[in-house]
Design a protein that fits this description.
27% strand, 89 residues, 2 helices, globular, single chain, Phosphorylase Kinase, domain 1, nucleotide-binding, protein serine/threonine kinase activity, alpha+beta, 22% helix
Amino acid sequence: MSASSCTVGLPQMKDYVLTESLGTGTYATVYKAVHKGKQKGVVAVKCIKRSRLTVSSMENLLTEIKVMKQLQHEHIVQLSEFELVHYSS
């Protein structure tokens, strides 16, 4: 199977290549990804389905992002960036 056929159906992002789905929840899917330019290694990208967000869940998401930006602990995934993109998945 070629690399391109493995990524069919995955969201496309400007700076990251999504390689596989790691898990799906109520309003988001987390993907394994690599950065196209920087040497960051493997990262997790959380793609949120805006159509499934209520006003309350959007507020919770923004709070989660704010808190995650401030957290630094060896057992907690570090939030390195946040980007709003549109995809049809």
